[in-house]
Structure formats: structure tokens, C-alpha cells
Amino acid sequence: MGILEVKGVNKRFGGLQALGNVNLSVAENTVHAIIGPNGAGKSTLLNCLVGKLIPDTGSVMFDGQSVLGRHPHEINQMGISRVFQTPEIFGDLTVLENMMIPCFARRDGSFRMHAFEQFSHERELIDKAMHMLEEVNMAEKKDMHSASMSRGDKRRLEMAMCLVQEPRLLLLDEPTAGMARADTNNTIDLLKEIKQKRDITMCIIEHDMHVVFSLAERITVLAQGTPLVEDTPDKIKGHPKVQEAYLGEAAH
Amino acid sequence: MLGLATKDFVLLLVVAVLCLFAPVLLNPFPETSDLAQFNAGYPDLMQRFVIFGIFAIGFNILFGLTGYLSFGHAAFLGVGSYSVVWMFKLLNYNIVPGLLLSLVVSGLFALAIGYVSLRRSGIYFSILTLAFAQMSFALAYSVLTPITNGETGLQVYGNDPQYLQGDSAPNIPHLFGMTMRATETVEFGPWLWQFNAGYYFCAVVMLIAFYLAIRIFRSPFGMMLRAVKSNQQRMRYTGLNPRPYTLAAFVISGMYAGLAGGLMASMDPLAGAERMQWTASGEVVLMTILGGTGTLIGPVLGAGLIKYLENILSKINDNILHQWFAFMPDGLEDFLVAIVHPFIGKGWHLTLGLVFMAVVIFLPGGLVEGGQRIGRLFGRKKPAEAEAKAAAKTPAE
Ligand SMILES: Nc1ncnc2c1ncn2[C@@H]1O[C@H](COP(=O)(O)OP(=O)(O)O)[C@@H](O)[C@H]1O
Ligand SMILES: [Mg+2]
């Protein structure tokens, strides 16, 4: 049994079958990549995992518990964090404040007021946030207004915000899209390092095959809402169906 | 100091000093001069400045931080007023029990309205709050007459029980014997200064309210509220439910409004349903935007400006205009009076509208932004106030 078990998930948008009978099993402490052409339903699948969408049929189990019918914040509290395809950060806040929010969320879980405590007194949390920012090479940008940063920086910030929560399952939706080569390599190193340090399962959607083959231990290929094959990276590389459906397309 | 960063403490201090000397500062023109009608340093108006300041400070905690635009805050104002008058009727003219009750009742009221309205965001939230406030207004006028005394308005009558009213206690609103109407008038050359107990009481309450608002703005809770405004989606996927935070902000700002309403009734023991009308809800929105949404001092400035225009412009009439322009040839005098006429007296709303449009278009950050720009013009040697205003806008560190 994997830590994440998706069984028979279907999702329709009007006449469009975005997901058709998806089965997916992600083993604990592995990096599992999901690849497939644009519009294959990869983001839709993640939406079904984090409570943004509810599948029409099927089940989604995380660590033996169903996530269906739970609110997004409850699913996050179960230990699932997600990096979105378009960066979702707190644009009006500074970089450090962005980091502080997941730090508070992790400490308190549910609602606490803290209306008369002073922000600057939260030394422990600030240290933790700063430490994470250093890991993604953003410490010197801590006072920047986060909306004014580049797309690549926003992504790294969002990833740091997810990682500081120490999730058990990290979902990454095209984390290196829009990043410069050097930043992409940094991201790969960062994810590898995190993986070595702690128990964490990652599910990564990626178009950049360099990233996929550097990180993934298993790969699922999704096409038109249905998994075509699931195998190790080496096997996937030579698979004719995959060549045809995806790698061939990415090559030109 | 007081748990505030230096910048914030300076701002609080500046506001406190301005409040303390307001009776002098707001009366710059000698009584005998023609300009005396621009003086704002009389008790009634000064009380309104600080009371509406409280109303706007509270509104800003909701609107400025979370971005939820309530169009029904006047309902809490009315509820606060009714609470105070009822305490006058039942207990005695001491204002303390009434003010405490107004906090409790408006808090509960806000909890109920907020719980329902916050199920929606954006325009739907605004409409829901507006609907609730108009409903309260209509009910206060009709069905709830036994509680609100309908159109007449709630007031204290000779046959009210007033169980705790002592024989020697004042027969008008007072704070442990000090009547709110008590005024010390000082003549200083041609100037006339009025130091009024009611005003100073309201000013102290406003300073406390302002201090608490600064603490909220700078606290982790304040940061969460700004996160709500910024990106609710990210908040949810970070494991935080935005609802309790917005509801808490709604209740806090409702209690500020209730307190403001309570103070109104404490200054003048009368509560009418019109206090709940949508125009009053809209006014506080204007005040906040005019002053600078999301800034600390902005709402207070906005409240001051609107109340000043309302009370001073509306008192100017054509006779006064003729006096001003008397030195001109008759034809030109009449012409100028005709031009200015629509902007004064009952037409002060037109002036307010134009000022509001000008601010929104040219100074989207409100008066605070104006202050900052002026401060920047004068370069490094900014006056302390402008610096404090600038401080009001910078986020927590
Ligand atoms: N909320 C939605 N409403 C309607 N159609 C959607 C919605 N989300 C995704 N789709 C459609 O579902 C298909 C799969 O989309 P998506 O999961 O974003 O693909 P991918 O992430 O693999 O590129 C696309 O055709 C897209 O247009
Ligand atoms: Mg996608």
C-alpha cells in the first residue's frame, strides 16, 4: 500500500472527460513523477488530491484516510502541501511574512488569535523561516514585496513555504517552469537534499525531462486523462507508447 | 514602549497631543474675525471627530486588513446607541454600564451578521451586510418599536425606572458624577477655547481604541488578516481556514462601531433608527478611503475631514458669501455667489463628492499618501507628523 492511493477517479467538465479511470499508487518516501502532454489532466488530478475539485467517482486515500469531502485546509493539515502551476503566494506581503504564515499554520493548526502578541517576538518562528529562505537562496530578499519578484523567485518562495511545513507528501506542479537553468539545477539539488534529510514523499509534474530523470524513482505517463504506463525512469525512456504520446512531442 | 515600535509610538503620541490641544488647535481664528465660522473647536463637533474616528478605525480593521467591504456597519452604531439609552432608562445616567453593554451587544450582533455574511466574499458579502443593516433599520422603525421607540427615537422619560439613580446624581449623562456637558471656557485675548469633559472622555476612548488597533495591525493576527486579503487560496492550502480570522475581524470592527454608537448616545442621550441607515454605513466607507485604507491614521483623518466639511460648509449660506465678496463690484459679487452657492449649505455633499473623486483619482492612498508626498517634497527634514504618517503605512517588521 502506498501512502497515496488513487482508485478509479473520473472527472468530467461538461462534455470533456478530464480524468478517466485514473489509478495511481505512490509509495512512501519516493519521488513519483507524472508526465504527459498539455491538457492531459495532470493539474486536474492534483486538484482532486488537495480538495480543490471533487472527483465524480473514485476514491483518494492518503495514509489510509480518505481526503474526499475534506476542506483544503484540513487536507493540508493531514500533511499534504502543494506548489501550484502558477505561483500562489501572498503578493501583498513581504517574503519573510510569506514564510511566517506557514510557520504559524504548522505551530497552531487551527485558529488562534495572537492579536496582541508582537510579530518581532516570534524569534523561534522567524529563525525557522529565515533558515528555510537561506536554503532556497532567498535570505537577502526577505524584505522584498513578494509580488514584485520574478516568476522563478515566486516559485522558489512558494516551494520554501511548502517545505517549511515539513509535509509528508509534497505535490509539485511544474516547479521549474519559467526558471533559469541555474535555478532549475538549484531546485533539483534542493529537492534531493530535502529528500535525503527527511522522510518525504514527492509527487512531481514536470515537462523538463532533465528534472524528471534527475529526481524520479517512478514515472506515470498520463495522456487524455488516463494513465498510459507506470514504470521506472529507465523503462519509461524506451517505451514506444511513451515516445509516441509524449517524448516524441517534447522533442521537437 | 507599550509594546509598540518607536515609529508607532511616536504616531500614538502625536495623536494624543493633537487630541489634548484640539480645543485650541481647532480654534485658530479669533472670535471677532470673519473667519471664526471656520473654527471647529466647539465641543459638539470635536466629540463627533473622535467618535467617528473610532468608527472608522474599527471599520479599517475589517476593510483595510482583510479587504472585506461591509456596507452595514451603521447597524452596529445604532445597536450601540440603543444599548446606552436603555441603560440610562433602566439604571442611571452613568455612561459606563451602557458603554459596556454596547460593546457586548454589538459584538453579538456582529457575530450573527458576520457568520452569515462571511459565507460569501466580494460584492455578495457587501450586499449581504447592506441587507442586514437595512433590515435592522426597517425593524427598528416598525416592529421593534417597543425596544426602539420607532420614529420618535429612544430617549429617557420621567417615568423610567432608573433603579440606580441617586438623588444627588446628575440628571444628564455623566461619568461617576462628571457630566459630559461640563465645559470649561477660557478666553485668551480674542480667542475662545472650550474644554469639554465629554470630548476628553471620547478622546481618551479613541486613543485606547487607536492603540489597540496598532497592536492588531502589527500582530501575527494582523498579518493573517492581510494574508486573507492577499490570497485566500494559498491560505487554505497552507492549512489555515480564513473564516475564523475574517469573522474575528468582523466582530472586532463591529464592536468598535458599537462603542462609537454608544458614545454618541452618551454625549446626547437619544438614539434614533436613522443612525442605522445605509447612508451612515456608506459614510464610514468614504472616511476610510478618503483617509487611506489600510493605514493606521488614515481613517481618523478621513473621519475628521468629512465631519469638518459637513459641519462647516453646511453652515455657510448666501448671506455669508455676500459678506465675503462684498468688496467686489455688485455684478461680479452676485456672479461669484451664484458659482459658489451649489457647494455650500445643503450642497456640501457636492463638495464632498468632488473631494472624494479627486482623492480617489489623484491620491489612491488617500490623505495619508498626500501627506507622504508632501513629506517627500520637503526631503529629509520631514515634519514629525508626516514621518509618523509614513510609518503608519509600512508593514510590520
Ligand atoms: N475547471 C475547469 N473547467 C473546465 N475545464 C477544465 C477545468 N480545469 C481543467 N479543464 C480542462 O481539463 C483538461 C485538463 O487540464 P489540466 O489538468 O490543466 O491539464 P495539464 O495540467 O495536464 O496540462 C484541459 O482540457 C482543460 O481545459
Ligand atoms: Mg497543468
How many strand segments of chain B?
Answer: 6
Number of strands of chain A: 10
* Helix/strand/pairing category of chain B: mainly alpha
| Apparent shape of chain B | globular
Arithmetic mean of pLDDT of chain B? 91
Rg estimate of chain B, integer Å: 22 Å
- Mind describing the biggest β-sheet of chain A? 6 strands, mixed
Average residue-wise pLDDT of chain A: 90
Our count of helices of chain A gives 9
Q: Helix-strand pattern of chain A, N to C?
A: EEEHEEHEHHHEHEHEEHH
Report on the structure:
- The complex is a heterodimer of chains A (252) and B (397).
- Chain A is an alpha/beta fold.
- Chain A has a domain at 4-79 and 167-251: P-loop containing nucleotide triphosphate hydrolases (Rossmann fold, 3-Layer(aba) Sandwich), CATH 3.40.50.
- In chain A, 38% of the residues lie in helices and 24% in strands.
- Chain A is built from nine helices and ten strands.
- In chain A, the strands form two sheets. Chain A has a six-stranded mixed beta sheet with strand order 6-7-8-3-9-10, with helices on both faces. A four-stranded antiparallel beta sheet of chain A has the order 2-1-4-5, covered by helices on one side.
- In chain A, strand 9 and strand 10 form a beta hairpin.
- In chain A, helix 3 (95-108) packs parallel to helix 5 (151-163).
- The longest helix of chain A has 17 residues, at 181-197.
- Chain B is mainly α.
- Chain B has a domain at 43-187 and 197-297: Orthogonal Bundle (ABC transporter involved in vitamin B12 uptake, BtuC), CATH 1.10.3470.
- Helix content of chain B is 65%, strand content 5%.
- Chain B has 17 helices and six strands.
- Chain B has helices at residues 6-25, 43-66, 74-90, 95-117, 122-141, 145-148, 197-218, 220-230, 232-236, 242-267, 278-291, 298-313, 318-324, 330-340, 348-362, 366-377, 384-393; strands spanning 154-155, 174-175, 178-179, 183-188, 191-196, 270-271.
- In chain B, helix 1 (6-25) packs antiparallel against helix 7 (197-218) and helix 16 (366-377) crosses helix 17 (384-393).
- The longest helix of chain B is centred in the middle third of the chain and has 26 residues, at 242-267.
- The relative contact order of chain B is 0.17.
- The model of chain B is unreliable at 389-397 (pLDDT under 50).
- The chains are: A alpha/beta (252), B mainly alpha (397).
- Chains A and B meet through helix 2 and helix 3 of A and helix 7, helix 8, helix 9 and helix 10 of B.
- The complex binds adenosine-5'-diphosphate and magnesium ion.
- Adenosine-5'-diphosphate (ADP) is lined by residues 13, 16, 18, 36, 38-44 of chain A.
